[in-house]
Structures are given as structure tokens and as C-alpha cells.
Amino acid sequence: MFKVKELFSNQGVGRYFTNTAWLLAEKGLRIIDAFFIGIWLARYLGPDDFGILSYAESFVYLFAAFATLGLDQIVVRELVKDSSKRDEILGTTLGLRLIGFVVMFAGIVFVTRLLDNTTIKNTMVMVIALTIFFQSIRGVDFYFQSKVLSKYTVISNFVAVGVLSIVKVILILSKAPLIYFAYALVLEWILISIGYIISYMHHKKSFLKWRFKWSIAKSLLKKSWFLIIGSVAAALYMKIDQVMIDEILDERSVGLYSVAVKMTSIWIFVTVAITQSVFPSLVSMRKKDKTLFLKRLQQLYDVLIKIAVVVSILYTIFASYFVPLLFGSEYTESSHILVLYIWSIVFVFLSNGSWGYYLNENLEKFSSIRLVTGAIVNISLNVFFIEWYGLIGAAYATLISYAISGYFVNALFKKTRINFYLQTRAFLNIFKLNTWIHPL
After folding, report:
1. Distance separating alpha carbons of residues 292 and 288, to the nearest angstrom
2. Which sign, positive or negative, has the C-alpha torsion 70, 107, 55, 371?
3. Pick from 43, 59, 168: which is nearest to 124 by CA?
4. Would you put residue 115 in left (φ > 0), alpha (ψ -120 to 50) or beta?
5. How many C-beta neighbours within 10 Å does residue 110 have?
6. d(Cα 337, Cα 426) in Å, to the nearest integer?
7. What's the domain range around 47?
8. Distance of CA 208 to CAs 188, 285, 289, Å?
């Protein structure tokens, strides 16, 4: 068993480990929801309607980067560095994200009018887009991340996911129309927002002290504008395949492909939980000792890549059995896609772990370059691969683009080459038994 505690600093190990446990517990609940309720929902809707729902979620995700502004880990880093400016940083973050939502929504309205979509597709997109508005309050989550106290927001997410699971079950049993499931997504974020507000106030903090400051806004945007570009690029190469499948093939194909995507995505919760919790300790460590910082980063990569490889092997062996069993014979084709698509998480895990390096070394520009590269490769390959090879072609395009952006691009630049070496060593450490027992 991994000694996960070794990922954290020598001081306050228990605090970081407990924080990770809370985050993993939340992600575990989401995995359970995505696995059981998600499977039931896919079976209920069938490939066609499930394809429409997946298309709408992917379409909104493409535009969501304009609302989030790439601020997430930048805000956490700034709060760790200078907590005295907490109210100004959080107030400014809220204001920027609300402005971003308005820009995003206007963009969605404009683009949907240009596309030859059905009324139900456009309606689903507009409703799901409202979730981004309620995500504006996520500054509270950033505050608790910076204090390594994620249990406060985790509890909010627990309640919201639990309630929404019950709501989705009721909708399925009552044979509710497709649009109701879009409303359910909005309800989830309304509940999460309320939970965040209650948690912040329970921690004896006041929203009335939040202040929007243009000076801080300019500072945050100056530090994050490359991340905004990167976020847009990441959204493109993570979700553009489902939108392009809908345009080139049909809704049913999106539904079949989405099963592979969702069965893979449930594992991304794990890497998000680990990297989010480790990030504050890496920030503190980098300020004290770069050698120790790189050692901890190597340990992080070692753990992440081992999890990804084990999961990928298991999926490869058993996908052809459990996909038809769980989703029904209508989704049999999804198992062939999943066997290939699952290996992309190896590079997604490495990519997510890399944020600890890029942000602490002030290399936001390079992180965005790799994401833009990945988006260009993904879109270019999808244009041809979907036409030539169908859904398997889209899976190949994803795997190749993720490998390039999450790993190989690091070798091209002098300042990121050390990160490439760390990632390469993580690959090699797969074959070293002692690294499975004791991270380096």
C-alpha cells in the first residue's frame, strides 16, 4: 500500500492527509453516483437521449472556461501567500466570475443560433449553462482549500450529491422527460452554493466584508490570462470530440461514446482530490526547499501514474463484459471504445499533477502552450479520424492529443524539461517494486 502521507510536508502531515481523505470521500460519493445512478440514467434514456444530454453538457463545458477565467489554483496560491487580503481576493474573484458568466452566456446564445440544432438541444444547453452562474460562489471552496480545510465544502457537496441522486431516481421512476435532468444539474449547483455560504458563515467569516478591487482584478488576470487560454484549450480537447461526433455522425453515436467518457471520467475525481489537497503543501515547500519540492512532486507522479495504469489494465481486461452487463446491449459498442479511451487517464493524471510544477515555478505560459497544442492536435485528428474510423477514431485522437499535451510537450522547453524527467521517471518506476511500497 502506498504511503500517501509521504506526499506531504513533514510538518502538518496529519492535516494534509485528513484533508485528502475528506476530498477522496467526496469524490468517492460522486463516483458512486456516476456509476450507479449514471448507469441507470443511461439505460433509461437510451443512446439517443443520453447523447443529447452529453452533447449539451459538453457544449456548455466548452464555454465554461470564459466564466472560470483560469483562476482556481491562482486564487488558492494567492490566499496561501497572503491571507490578509482574503476578503479582497474572494470578492474580486466573485465579481470576475460573474462577469465571465455573462460573457459566456452571450457567447452560447450567439453560437447556438449559428448551428442547425434541434429545439431540445438548444434548450438543454441554455438550462445547463445556468450551472456556471451558481459556480461563481466557488471562491469559498478556494478559501477552504488554501487553509487545507476542505471538509467544510465537502459536506456541502455530500448533501447536494445525495439529494440529487434521490431526485434523479425519482425522475427515472416517474419516466420524466429529458429536460428535467438538465434542471436537476442546475438544482445540484444551487444546493452546493447554499452549502458553501452556510459553511463560510459557520467558519465565522462574513460575505459582507468581500470587496471587489480593480487592482487585484488586474493582478489576478495578469497572472491568469495564460491560464484562461489554457482553460479554453483544455475544454476544447476534453469535450470537442463529443460535439464533433454529433456534427459528423449523430446523437446516438454521442451517447455510445459518452459511456466510455463517463466511465473514464469517474477516475479523474481521484486525481483532482489528490492534487487539490497536495497543492497548498507544494506552495509552502517550494518557498523553503526546491529539492524537497521536486522530491514530493516525484512522489505525487509515482502515485498518480500507478493508479492510472492499474485502472487502465483492469478496464482493458473486463470492459467487454461489464459494459453490456451494466448499460445494456444497446451500448455494447461502447466497450470497444472504452478499452482504448481509458488509457488517456495516464496522461490526464500526469497533466493534473503538473499544475503543482507550473504554478509554483511561474510557468503558466508554458502550461497554456501545451494545452493549446493538445487542442489543435485533438481537433485536427478528429476532423479526419471520425470520418475514417468512426468512434474508435475519436478515441485515438483523444489518446494521442492527451499524450502530447500532458507529457511530450514538456520535453520541448528547457524550463519544463525537468518536469518531463520527473514524469518519465514515474513511468520507469512502475517497474520498480520498491516504489510501489515506498514512494521515492
Report:
1. 9
2. negative
3. 59
4. beta
5. 9
6. 27
7. 4-437
8. 25, 33, 38
SS3 content of the chain, % helix, strand, coil (to 5): 90, 0, 10
Residue 404: name the closest of 362, 337, 348 by CA.
348
The residue to which cell 478556494 is assigned: 142
Confidence of residue 337 (pLDDT cuts 50, 70, 90): very high
- Cβ contacts of 74 within 8 Å, gap of 6 or more: 220, 223, 224, 227, 359, 364
What's the CA gap between 214 and 228, in Å, rounded?
Answer: 18
Contact 152, 207 (CB under 8 A): no
CA-to-CA distance for 432 and 355, rounded, in angstroms? 25
Residue 31 has pLDDT above 90, yes or no: no
pLDDT, tens digit (0-9, with 9 covering 90-100), for 373-428: 989 999 999 999 999 999 999 999 999 999 999 999 999 999 999 999 999 999 99
Give 246-264 pLDDT, tens digit per residue: 989 999 999 999 999 989 9
The helix/strand/coil state of 270 is: helix
Q: Residue 147: what pLDDT?
A: 73
Tell me how far apart the alpha carbons of residues 146 and 227 are, in angstroms, rounded to a whole number: 19
For residue 174, which phi and psi values (nearest 5 degrees)?
-90, 5
Long-range contacts (CB closer than 8 Å, 24 or more residues apart) made by 312-319: 312/342, 312/343, 312/345, 312/346, 315/263, 315/264, 315/339, 315/342, 316/342, 316/343
Which grid cell is 161?
Answer: 450529491
Q: How many domains does the chain have?
A: 1
Residue 58's CB is within 10 A of a number of other CB atoms, namely 24
Report whether pLDDT(346) > 90: yes
Q: What is Dmax (Cα atoms) for the chain?
A: 59
Q: Closest Cα partner for 358 from 22, 77, 45?
A: 77
Closest CA to 145 of 90, 191, 88: 90
Q: What does the block give as the cell for 240?
A: 470537442
- What gap in Å lies between CA 194 and CA 149, rounded to an integer? 18
119 compared with 291, residue with greater pLDDT? 119
Please give the Cα distance from 348 to 344 (Å, whole number): 6
Cβ–Cβ < 8 Å for 423, 410: yes
Q: 202: which residues sit within 8 A by CB, 6+ positions away?
A: 152
